[in-house]
Design brief:
CATH class: Alpha Beta
Strand content: 5-15%
Number of strands: 6
Largest sheet: 6 strands, mixed
Shape: globular
Number of helices: 8
Number of domains: 1
CATH topology: Uracil-DNA Glycosylase, subunit E
Helix content: 25-40%
Length: 232
């Protein structure tokens, strides 16, 4: 089993997707006015969090001016505001804001990862880019094999998690579970998969996803983990 340190090194060094490499670096060279003068990360992003996590959070990909700028997933953009607040309120984070790599934000019993590690143009990776990145997520699923709850942020992350789960030989349900916000699926090995709308501006600005809805997903995850840990 690969160590998290080695996996991190491999992810950061990856240049397998020419389109994504060009985009992440071009964004860093021509940032919007509010970020001019900042030094962008502009490399693939490894997962981060508690190495003993029982909760896995799977997103789609870093944001061009969020993780691609700050060097940490769900940090420094609008999605981070929503997610960090929900994680803090449900006991999975040390503070309610995630703004930069050295801000003191830490995860407790949770690990954040993504299906694709570079910021894609228009937030739309190609099928080939998903497949090139999948081995990284596979390694994390093996490393966190004892994680009991998985939250997928969006339908694409939901599908990517199930596809990767199959690739590593984890037991699968006979029918593919359907994504919905709040959908809670008991998988054959005891893992519980929970769906959530992604905290993108497209969803939060329109009211499709509210802070209460997002926090509710993670409070459900917390209850499931607490029930597992309770003495019989």
């Amino acid at each position: 089993m690969i160590s998290l340190r080695e996996l991190r090194s491999r992810i950061i060094a990856c240049r397998r997707c020419p389109r994504l490499v060009r985009h992440r670096e071009a964004v860093a060279q021509a940032p919007p006015r509010r970020y001019r003068g900042e030094r962008y990360w502009a490399k693939p992003l490894p997962g981060f969090g508690d190495p003993r996590a029982r909760l896995l959070i799977v997103g789609l990909a870093p944001a061009a001016h969020g993780g691609n700028r700050t060097g940490r997933m769900f940090t420094g953009d609008g999605s981070a505001v929503w997610l960090s607040r929900a994680l803090y309120r449900s006991g999975f984070a040390s503070r309610p804001t995630s703004t930069h790599r050295n801000d003191g934000f830490a995860l407790r019993d949770a690990w954040i990862t993504a299906a694709v590690r570079c910021a894609p143009p228009a937030n739309k990776p190609t099928r080939e880019e998903f497949l090139r990145c999948q081995p990284f997520l596979e390694a994390e699923l093996v490393r966190f094999g004892k994680a009991r709850v998985v939250v997928a942020l969006g339908r694409v992350a939901w599908d990517a998690y199930l596809r990767t789960r199959r690739a590593v030989g984890a037991p699968m349900p006979r029918r593919k579970p359907r994504f919905a916000h709040g959908a809670t699926i008991n998988l054959p090995d005891g893992t519980v998969l929970i769906g959530s709308y992604h905290p993108s501006q497209q969803n939060t600005f329109t009211g499709k996803l509210t802070q209460r809805m997002l926090t509710g997903v993670f409070r459900r995850a917390r209850r499931l983990l607490n029930a597992e840990a309770a003495p019989v």
